[in-house]
Amino acid sequence: MTYGTEQPPIIGRQAERRQLAAAVEACRGADGGALLLTGDHGIGKTALLRYASHLAQDFRAVRADGVPAEQNLVYGAVQRLVRPLVPDIPQLPPQSREVLERLLLGHVPSPGERSLIGVAVLALLARASGHSPVLVGVDDLHWVDAESRYTLGFVARRISTERVLILAGTESDGCAAVSGVPVLRLAGLSDQDCLRLIARTRSSPVAPPVREVLLHAAGGNPLILLELLRTLTPAELSQVSRLPDPLPLAPRLARLRLAEFRRLPGDCRRLLLLLAAEPGLDPLTLFRVAQRTGIEPSALKSAEAAGLLTISRTVISFRHDDLGQAVYQGSDLAERHWAHDMLARAFADTHDDRRCWHEAALLSEANAELADELERQAARAGRHGSPAKAAALMERSAQLTHEDGHRGNRLVAAADCSRRAGQPRRAARLLERAETLVGEDRPSLRGHIAYLKGVISLQHAAAPDAYDGLLTAADLLAGDNASLAIKALVAAGEAGLYAGNAALSVQAGRRALAVLNSPAREDQPSSRLAADVLLAVADSLQGRLAAAVPRLRERLGTATQVDDPLLLAWASHGALFIADDARARALATRAVTLARTAGDTPTMAHAMQYLSYPECWLSGPEAATVTATEALRLARETGQLSCVRNLMAILMLAAGITGDSGACGQYADRVVGEAQAHGLGLASALGLWGLAHLDLASGNWAEAAAKLRRVARTRLGHPGVAIEAVPSYVEAAVRAGDRPRAERAAATFAPWAEAIGRGWPTALAARCRALLETGDTEEHFRCALRLHPIGDRELELARTGLLYGEYLNRERRRSDARAQLREAADIFRRHGARLWLDRTRAELRATGDDWDPAENECPALEVQSGTLTSRQHQIVRLVAQGATNKEVAARLYLSPRTVDYHLRRIFERLGITSRADLIRRCAGGTGSGT
User: What is the DSSP secondary structure assignment for residue 203, as one 8-state letter?
Assistant: First the structure.
């Protein structure tokens, strides 16, 4: 059994349980069959088989589970299956009766009798089912002997009107012998179900950051999750920094892997140990090593037949990642020494640099020459985008270094590489070792250590905890390394914004100004850009918008000179403070590209959170969801817990806009529910905004206003999100009848919009005035539509159109209202904003218009409109208005070449040959919306 029984009940697996219940019910009605449950060890196959047994308590149950000791016992499982049904054998036809009786007496049938055995077992089960339905359960089918698997497959494929149900579980995707049998593949449990399992299993609390690490490590496998919970100590479960890195192998899983390994022949085991000591060996190298050891390479066939290896032309690897770890850790010191010695000799023959790693593994004392060579190899690995390899090489170099100061330098370098490789806890432990070797006379190195510890804390723990350490790092670095001091202060400012404490970011900005004015400052473009963005953000937070906006615009224009992905991500954040979504996306895209090239996965995930947010507004929630989902996977792999929460919040925002309450609620507890306790200001604000979108689109004005008031007023939030969410709050508060609060909120938004002076903020300020009926309401709505740039936050443009349409409908100007509502509906449809589209359709019906979602105001978009992207729709509209490619590029922040490419694709999809045809087509549809 892997996890759960019916006491306590199974967690999750609703769809699988329904399928099993349906199969049991069908069998009762003489519609028997078979089902093969597949999935990794511990995924829950045994629990579901027991669940089916619980449902079928009125069935006659027979079991023939696989047993490793009987894997080679011919027809061993069939014997165990038949024995409980012996009273029914005399009623079988003579040939079937005879073959089963001989089998039970221990006579091994000849290969030619395989089909006779299958026919006999089928007849026996059919006979037994005449009294009551029969449930045949076979767990661990992969351990069942081949002849019995053939028989089970033969029977399973022929059950039809018999009241017989065969349920089997196997780790593989299904043995060839049982092909043709329906398969139920078990994926991992959802995060919510894993969290429920943790809550049910642990009486003592598990810290939320630790939960995230365990969820990723388990990958939805309940056995791994439970084994980790039992293996780790309460102290380790209470604080993420105390978790071992890497996490220990689940004991039960390790025993299983080693049992499989130890059943192999000796030569095969030795070759597998070589692979465990040097993962990813290519076949040719392994062949050379095998020759040196006197082992035939064909010895690997046993491991391949057992499903332990995958072999290609270029690499041999373990099928399960944890198998290599289990093999290496399960071997004694002499066996490991033999493996490293053989590999070192083989690599020396070919002058392969990997020789040094294995020679180092054989040493227990310092060796300066080898340490220097490992350091050079680490530097090369870092330059080639392999930080994990660089970290391992540099750490081994440090271990072989005798002099304390030099060893401290190498440990710090190894920690930096480990951080970039997504190994934060390992990096933190390396820094702890380095601190003991670095004296007060080396402030620059101590500052570097403090900086790395602060960044690790910011990315992998709680933002408030990181802030003080980053300020300390800046103080230590200011004298000798001003550029790194600026990076530390930028990270501190970011920590303040993450935590929702604007005062912290302001303080970091003031410290950055002092560094810039110091004699030791360096005139590097990257440092100047980072510092100026930080200072401008600080000015913005203090209400000095007249100084902040032009400063940000000027400095962001110099970002092309910067090639540090962390600083580019920060610049992208700064662009959002001046409502420049296009520039924010461009800067974040460049940061992602640079980080990917460098192999810096944590920084790539960090930058992708700044990419997904503007994508949500420029390309739509679907594009943002794709980016944020990939970034969330990377952030989890690299242990960036703050980034994980922020990305969950962006997914909540995208889901809220599209009206997907299930996806929005998936993360609500972890993002919004835990915000106060763990300093998740940015994540909390975005998550609340997503939930408020659901309420706004559904007409739940009071609930939306309450959530948005928390975004705008609570200290634990994010100033940028708070100001951007004000127009939504004004709408909710006005509709909820709370005009005074709506007016106060609009009054806070207006100065920011005025300072920006263009784009969607000015349009939404006009929309707020229209909602508050300040002066000429209709003119304010028209002004909002006129000021809204094409292609910039189309969803907000659609919401303005919806609100204007609702106003016109109340004024009984139904024809004018339909034109606005149809345009809004088209945008909502293209972006998949289901709830907003439903609200718009309802308003259209109130005007007497039964709108067809396939219609469009432009015939060019009617033809295969589903094949045009949102960006291509924007280009079509601008071209139809007479804009040149250069003008379109300027409006949409694209290059003319990109516009030309999109136009060619549009022509192909719409079946036209020129822009003149496109303009004529669109002109033919003018006015069709009324």
Answer: S
Burial of 394 (0-12, 13-18, 19+ CB in 10 A): buried
Q: Which of 254-268, 390-404, 497-511 has the weakest average pLDDT?
A: 497-511
H or E element at residue 606 = helix 601-618
Integer Rg of the chain from CA = 33
Closest CA to 486 of 449, 462, 536, 521: 521
Structure tokens at 663: 């996806």
Task: Label the pairing between strands 33-38 and 134-138.
Answer: unpaired
Q: What is the C-alpha to C-alpha distance for residues 104 and 98, in angstroms, rounded to an integer?
A: 10
**Would you say the pTM of this structure is higher than 0.90?**
no
Q: Which residue has the tokens 């978009």?
A: 861
Q: Cα separation of 679 and 451, whole Å? A: 20
Interatomic CA distance for residues 232 and 248, integer angstroms? 8
pLDDT for 73 beyond 50: yes
Structure tokens at 361: 């593994």
Q: In which element (H, E) is residue 152 found?
A: helix 146-156
Cα(849)–Cα(825) distance, integer angstroms = 12
**Angle 468-472-473 (CA atoms, 0-180°, nearest 5)?**
115
Contact, 473 vs 487, CB < 8 A? no
Helices marked H in 301-403:
301-305, 321-329, 333-349, 354-361, 368-383, 387-399
| Cβ pair 485, 473 in contact under 8 A | yes
Lookup result for tokens 């920094």: 241
Instruction: State yes or no: pLDDT of 906 exceeds 60.
Output: yes
d(CA 666, CA 426): 31
Say if residues 408 and 437 touch (Cβ distance below 8 Å): yes
How does pLDDT run across 153-172, given as a tens digit for each residue? 999 999 988 899 999 999 86
Q: Which of 477, 430, 424, 480 is nearest to 450 (CA)?
A: 477
Q: Find, among 631, 687, 700, 702, the residue nearest to 657 by Cα.
A: 687
Token couple for 137: 């359960």
pLDDT tier at 461 (50, 70, 90 boundaries)?
A: low
* CA distance readout (Å), 693 to 653, 700, 844: 8, 10, 21
Say whether 528 sits in a helix, a strand or coil.
helix
Q: Per-residue pLDDT for 864 more than 50?
A: no
pLDDT tens digits for range 528-572: 888 888 888 888 888 888 888 998 898 898 888 889 999 999 999
Using omega within 30 degrees of 0 as the cis cutoff, is the peptide bond preceding 8 cis? Answer: yes
Give the Å distances, CA to CA, from 739 to 201, 659, 693, 772, 778: 49, 26, 20, 8, 19
- Mean per-residue pLDDT for 288-299? 87
What is the residue whose two structure tokens read 């998949």?
832
Residue whose tokens read 């709505």:
781
List, in sequence order, the alpha helices (H) in 619-659.
621-637, 641-658
| Separation CA 658–CA 34 (nearest Å) | 40
DSSP, collapsed to helix, strand or coil, labels residue 505 as helix
The backbone torsions φ and ψ at residue 519, rounded to the nearest 5 degrees and listed phi first, read -65, -25
Q: Which is nearest to 733 in space by CA: 751, 708, 716?
A: 708
Identity (one letter) of the amino acid at 308? L
Span 221-248, average pLDDT:
88
What tokens does 754 get? 């005025």
| 8-state DSSP, 831 | T
In sequence order, which ranges of 436-462 are alpha helices (DSSP H)?
443-460
